[in-house]
Automatic annotation (TrEMBL):
GO MF, one annotated term: oxidoreductase activity
Keyword Metal-binding belongs to the record: no
Organism the protein comes from: Penicillium salamii
Matches recorded under Pfam families: adh_short (PF00106)
Keywords: Oxidoreductase
Domain of life: Eukaryota
Record protein name field: Uncharacterized protein
Entry keyword annotation includes Oxidoreductase: yes
Length: 335
């Protein structure tokens, strides 16, 4: 467990990266994404922030708060239903017209629902898209800007610029995949949907960390954080979830703490990209120090013993998952 003091000390040193860091928070209009954006704005010097989500009302309130928290920050809202890859592409284009570099991309758009498969007009399950395909599309589109961010070297230390992607899901939960039905057209269940989103995230992040060695990739498990995650569920689900939070109160991670812990995962130098690993680098998801992709738990420590990933790495499944993802993109968006 990384202590609260160490989390705060690390976040306070965010100013050492210099001014004008750019953070994109997909799912920044609520919950963990919002609280991570708040922490970013609190500690960064003259940051530029993009909150992506659907709720304009919520975004306006957050923007007002964030401007008061750091008057030198520039906070923008980009509206979109990002379960649709077309809207992901539009959001990315809007960001790319304004920014050459992105230092931190936080992916936390998601829903909690007990519904079965619910297809978007693009043919993907809505939940699997929000938790995996849409997030990977953001990442894929914004790789040039993430790579540019790493090129900005600090004159004094020689340290590369911050270039990191965070996906907030369940770093501990990697499980076997149904390899002949990755989008779960025939085998949909809530369990399978969670398993596929989680495990494909870990495998794709490893694959990308090797191909894009100037950027690091972190898959986090936030623990139990009381948010509005069940807002699209029925009232029974909301009551059940509230009961879980009540029963497990001692294990809940307060929302503000979760934001600070995610900022730590998003900025601490120990989660370094492959090309700038140092002696202090954390152990990567493949068991190798500083490999550029990391699994991080709610206590901000790395998660280990990921047997299922080991098998998929060895038999080439890891590479084929990323290829499948690119094929899905090509099928829906043409590239
Ligand atoms: N909270 C927990 O205890 C917990 C535990 C484990 C894992 N997680 C995972 O962490 C992630 C974040 O959860 P959270 O607790 O922060 O939930 P949250 O408070 O409900 O936030 C979810 C965010 O996703 C956005 N979103 C949902 N559907 C969208 C869509 N179609 N298009 C654009 N944006 C959309 C929402 O924005 P708009 O409403 O503005 O669209 C909101 O900003 C989720 O993937 C969840 O599965 C959470």
């Amino acid at each position: 467990m990384v202590s609260w003091e160490n989390i705060q000390a690390s976040n306070t040193s965010l100013k050492n990266y210099g001014p004008n860091l750019v953070g994109v928070f997909v799912g920044g209009t609520s919950g963990i994404g919002e609280s991570t954006a708040r922490a970013f704005v609190k500690y960064a010097v003259s940051p530029r922030v993009y909150l992506v989500g659907r709720s304009e009302t919520r975004a306006s309130q957050i923007i007002e708060d964030l401007r008061a928290l750091n008057p030198d920050g520039q906070i923008n809202f980009i509206k979109g239903d990002v379960a649709r890859l077309e809207e992901v592409d539009q959001a990315c284009k809007e960001i790319q017209t304004k920014e050459d570099k992105i230092n931190l991309l936080v992916l936390s758009a998601g829903i909690l629902t007990m519904k079965g498969r619910e297809e978007t007009d693009e043919g993907l399950d809505k939940k699997l898209s929000l938790h995996y395909y849409s997030r990977m599309r953001f990442l894929y589109n914004l790789l040039p800007q993430l790579t540019n961010a790493s090129n900005a070297q600090d004159a004094a230390s020689g340290q590369s610029g911050l270039s990191r992607v965070l996906s907030v899901l369940d770093a501990r939960g990697n499980a076997p995949l149904i390899l002949n039905d990755l989008p779960l057209k025939e085998n949909y269940s809530l369990r399978n949907c969670a398993n596929h989103a989680i495990t494909m995230t870990s495998l794709s992040m490893e694959e990308l960390a090797a191909s894009y060695p100037a950027t690091s990739f972190v898959h986090t498990y936030p623990g139990l954080v009381k948010t509005s995650l069940a807002r699209e569920s029925g009232s029974l689900m909301k009551i059940a979830l509230n009961a879980v939070f009540l029963l497990l109160t001692p294990m809940n991670v307060p929302l503000e703490e979760s934001g600070e812990r995610h900022l730590y995962a998003g900025t601490n130098p120990m989660f370094s990209p492959l090309n700038s690993k140092g002696d202090a680098a954390a152990i990567g998801s493949d068991g190798i120090q500083g490999s550029g992709s990391y699994l991080v738990g709610s206590d901000s420590a790395t998660v280990s013993n990921q047997k299922v990933l080991e098998g998929y790495r060895a038999d080439g499944t890891r590479a084929s998952i990323w290829k499948h993802t690119l094929d899905i993109f090509k099928g829906i968006r043409g590239d």
